[in-house]
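TA notes, week 10

Several of you asked for a full example with nothing omitted. So below is the full record: structure tokens for the whole chain, then the designed sequence directly under it. When grading your own attempts, check the secondary structure regions first.
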């Protein structure tokens, strides 16, 4: 929390001062500000850097209703949606994803993703490439936390790992990816998450907050009081630089969509900022915010979208609430990255934790199906305009080119310039841990 002109406080080190500044979570989900500066040697402000935007489709979308329609299957399996042709010969997509179809040359549908162990709802495998089984003490860290640890910030004023995930009724649906054994210093910064209230300057009205000179004066007085108390003695250079972060506009500007071209905002749309059931919102502005964040310097941005767990009314739910908005947000993001010359530097992946049953149940829904699911890749300088993998006639089993979550993670780490074959991170017991388990990148996209 950041407080201005608070009450008199006795600290545990017996230093008495006004509680003019508290540097703690600051809306970073436990991320301490000094940690943002730990890799100062990384690429500096204004330099191009590699990044990943990961869209977690909470609850697992049905692959056979999006990228892998089975028109030759019986009616109780194929459902009511129809495929449409795209600009890539032989590549069809669901009729409710026309915008993605129009940029088929810029995307890579993955039709044979596997690796989910039991069909339980959890974002864990999407963020780590691993299952929750046999974890080291502290748990496996998400890709955002790994990159935070190994790369640090590309810009000292912007967190390397940002999660656009508000709280949800089912907690894994609201997770941006956990830090695991890397610790809370490598947690995601969550501007729309449960720590949002900690980003408020308590005790200062809007007029004073907008008066940058007054705000800087508050910091100056804090420093004088802290100096006189001796609390600044011995503070290392990195901690002193925290104040530069707190008074920088770079992160705030990235989060301020009012600074974006109105025509661009209209292209992305708004969607629905309210949570869908116990899942995440269908907030299309998060797609735009993700682009602005990587543009400002973030390396990993995770984005939680919707609730795809349609055990009933699968086709109504997809057609009326999810597919059109997902289509608009993702297609616009991909086009925007290309138009801005960022497509080679920013990789995009969208997926859920497993697939859905081939057979439609009595309630018109599809149930959990861990045997195979789907996903989509874009950007990253990858060879796009192709489909990788295939399922059988019923969409029930992998028929060609199985793709494990770990292979996608190896691909993303390679894109980020991280050697996934070495063991640069250590668990809580001091043992080195590999980033992926015996998987290589998708050779088709390189």
């Amino acid at each position: 929390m950041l407080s201005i002109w608070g009450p008199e406080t006795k600290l545990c080190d017996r230093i008495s001062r006004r509680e003019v500044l508290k540097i703690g979570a600051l809306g970073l989900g436990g991320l301490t500000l000094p940690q943002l500066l730990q890799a100062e040697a990384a690429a500096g402000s204004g330099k191009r850097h590699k990044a990943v935007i990961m869209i977690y489709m909470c609850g697992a979308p049905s692959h056979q209703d999006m990228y892998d329609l089975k028109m030759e299957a019986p009616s109780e399996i194929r459902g009511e949606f129809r495929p449409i042709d795209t600009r890539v010969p032989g590549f069809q997509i669901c009729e409710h994803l026309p915008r993605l179809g129009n940029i088929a040359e810029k995307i890579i549908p993955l039709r044979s993703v596997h690796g989910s162990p039991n069909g339980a709802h959890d974002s864990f495998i999407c963020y780590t490439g691993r299952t929750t089984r046999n974890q080291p003490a502290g748990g496996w860290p998400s890709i955002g936390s790994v990159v935070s640890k190994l790369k640090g910030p590309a810009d000292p004023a912007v967190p390397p790992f940002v999660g656009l995930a508000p709280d949800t009724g089912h907690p894994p649906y609201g997770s941006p990816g956990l830090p695991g054994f890397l610790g809370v210093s490598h947690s995601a910064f969550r501007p729309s998450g449960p720590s949002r209230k900690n980003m408020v300057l308590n005790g200062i009205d809007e007029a004073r907050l907008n008066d940058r000179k007054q705000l800087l004066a508050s910091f100056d007085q804090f420093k004088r009081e802290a100096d006189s108390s001796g609390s600044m003695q011995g503070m290392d250079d990195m901690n002193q630089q925290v104040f530069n972060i707190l008074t920088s506009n770079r992160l705030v500007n990235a989060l301020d969509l009012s600074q974006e071209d109105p025509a661009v905002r209209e292209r992305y749309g708004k969607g629905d900022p309210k949570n869908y059931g116990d899942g995440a919102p269908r907030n299309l502005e998060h797609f735009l915010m993700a682009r602005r964040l990587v543009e400002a310097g973030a390396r990993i941005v995770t984005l939680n979208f919707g609730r795809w767990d349609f055990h009933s009314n699968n086709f109504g739910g997809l057609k009326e609430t999810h597919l059109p908005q997902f289509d608009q947000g993702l297609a616009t993001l991909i086009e925007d990255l290309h138009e801005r010359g960022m497509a080679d530097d920013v990789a995009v992946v969208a997926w859920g934790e497993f697939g859905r049953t081939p057979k439609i149940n009595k309630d018109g829904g599809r149930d959990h199906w861990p045997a195979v699911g789907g996903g989509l890749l874009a950007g990253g300088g990858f060879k796009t305009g192709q489909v990788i993998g295939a399922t059988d006639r019923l969409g029930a089993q992998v028929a060609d080119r199985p793709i494990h979550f770990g292979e996608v993670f190896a691909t993303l780490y390679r894109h980020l310039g991280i050697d996934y074959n070495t063991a640069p991170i250590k668990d809580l017991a001091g043992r080195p841990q590999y980033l992926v388990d015996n998987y290589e990148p998708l050779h088709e996209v390189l």
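Residues 169 and 278 are 4 Å apart (CA to CA). Use that as a sanity check on your answer.
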